[in-house]
Amino acid sequence: MSLDLTRIPDLDGDQSAGEPSQALRDLKPTGRRTVLRGIALSGVAVGAAVLGWSPLSGMRSASAETGPNGLRGWDRNDCKDAYPVRSGYPSGGYNEERDTGGAYTGSAAACYGGDFMGSDYCSSGWHRSGTVRDAPITRTYVPISSACGSGATKNAWKWTAGGRTWRCSDGHTTVSGGGSSRTYLTICRAPV
Q: Regarding beta strands 164-177 and 156-161, do their DSSP bridges make them parallel or antiparallel, or are they unpaired?
């Protein structure tokens, strides 16, 4: 005899419609439903646990990130298609450069191309935004979107270096003081 869930009576319905099984014959009709409901929920729990133990459960699908300023990040751990294959770059990509300041100057090089690079240009793992006045100097931080791949503008990309994945988020930092100002390409380097 197979289990037909449509034959299990509703709690509020006619109690005489259900037929007690031999295993549950000594239980009241409400007790049988409770036992069957418990069996069904146990099956769901076991199935969910098995899926949780699966090697696939630890894999995250690739998805583009969005920074706090609404700018999009790159959804891969390399950016090889942003740089063409050429001499010195046999597989595309770039040669990482060491940070110029911040907390990770002693770590493996990860980002590339900024006048200044490091964690000093970060806020919540993305390039800073806003103005900081420290008389007589004022620094204005502006995240930007630059090309990382054909036709896709992105603010940040990920790169794996030294066994760790890093986010390199682009921006401009304008330093003003003494009647003059200068703007630099700066890159926030943050662990992902």
A: antiparallel
Which candidate, 78, 108, 73, places its Cα nearest to that of 94?
78
Query: Could you tell me the CA-to-CA distances from 98 to 40, 146, 156, 173 in Å, in that order?
Result: 57, 20, 17, 19
140/144 Cα distance (integer angstroms): 13
Place of tokens 């770059």: 89
pTM (two decimals):
0.60
CB 173 within 8 A of CB 127: no
More confident residue, 38 or 101: 101
Q: Which residues pair with 118 in a beta bridge?
A: 101, 188
Indicate whether 85 and 127 sit together in one domain. Answer: yes
Residue 159's domain comprises 80-191
Looking at the structure of the chain, the number of domains it has is 2
